[in-house]
Structures are given as C-alpha cells and as structure tokens.
Amino acid sequence: MILTFQIEADGGESGFKTSSKFHLVDLAGSERVKRTGAQGERMKEGIKINMSLLALAKVIQRLVELQSSEETDVHVPYRESKLTRLLSDSLGGTAHTCMVACVSPGDIDVSESQNTLRWADQAMEVTNNASVNVVVDADDLLAPAEHAELLSEVASLRAIVKAQRDQREADLDRTCLMRKALVQSETKVETLRAKGDALLQRHEALRRALPAEVLAAADAKLGFDVELASLGTVDDDVDEAAIRLEPEEVSRLDV
Asked: According to the model, what pLDDT value does residue 43 have?
C-alpha cells in the first residue's frame, strides 16, 4: 500500500514555490505459495507481490553498484514495476528516506527474517542526495518594466518572422506564376512553329503545282524572292498561304 501526499508552499513576494512529496509505503512480505497454500485470486496476488519485491531488489542492487563504482552508464530499472517508478525519488533520488524492516522472533520464520535483514542491509548502502525542489516563476523575478520590454521584443521578433514568411510565400507564388507563363509561352511558340512548318510545306506544294511561266509571272508580280530559308517568324493570325493571280493567268492553269 502506498499513500502519497504532495505539498506546495508559495513563497509570496520572493517568487519561490516549494514542492514536496511525502510517501507512506507498507511493503508486503514475500508470498510463498507452498507455505501459504493460497489458490485462485489470492495466489495471483501473491505472485504480483513477489514480482514487485523482485523489481525493488534489482533497483537497490543496481543503485549499490552505481554508487560503489565509477561507472555512470549503469541502467537502473525503475520502470519495471509501478512500485519502483513511484519510489524513484526515494531510491537514490533527492528525498529523505526512512525504512523499517520487520522480522519475527519465531523459529518458523527464521528464513524469512534472514532474507529481510539481508535486503535491509543492502538497502542501507543506497545514498540519497536530499535537496529542496524549488520552482522559480520568471514573472516574479523580473521587474515590470523589464518584463514589458521583453514582451515587446518578443512581439516585434514574431512580427519580423511573420513578415519574412509572408514575403517568402509571395515570392513562391510569383515564381509559380512566372513558371506557368513560361510553359504557356513555350507551348504557344511550339504551336506557331508547327503552323509555320505546315504553311511552308503547303507553299512549297503550291509552287511545285504551278507551271513555270505562271510561277515566274507570280513572283514578278508579288515582288519577292523565293528563298524559304529567309522566312523568320510566322504570325499567329496566318491561316493559310496562297498566291494571288490575275484572272487571265488563272485561266491558263492546266488543272
């Protein structure tokens, strides 16, 4: 059975708050099923008691090994049972600990008394470093003017961080829009280039279909040199290429 009392004392104007714990622990003795003749739930309860006592003995043994050697990486298994986890401050911690070992003068309990005395002797070798647990409230340690100045500085720093974050997000959005516009422009250029190639091919086909004298007359009338390589850009509004001929020249076409 474990009774725990937690006490907190407010220091008032000093700004110090003292926190204390007071444990009252009644450890049951080891339960030997052969001796007690327990069955059912009573036997299960005795097994759990023995497991808790075994975990407590392991913790005490590890603490003795840790304090008697220079090693600092010795693992203390406080978490193996609820008992040792609750008593972690009392076993090698920062609390004052008083332990009372109860023995029996009866001859039938000699082995149990010897085990209890051995266990108590080992527990006496564990040393606690008792100290006062003090919680300091930062609001009480600072003067009102200093506290207000710090709050103002924190608020300004948060505003700067928020402005920088917003600027990064705006730059990211602008970059995404520019990238999207670039992709659209590249797509438009490819489309125009494909249209230009198609128009050039149609222009070549039309020129090959015309008789030589009609082609020469058309070139002379339109006034441009037939150099396909000199065609640079193609306007987006161009739908088709055609050669305009006079009515009397069209009548001479051999279709």
From this structure: 80
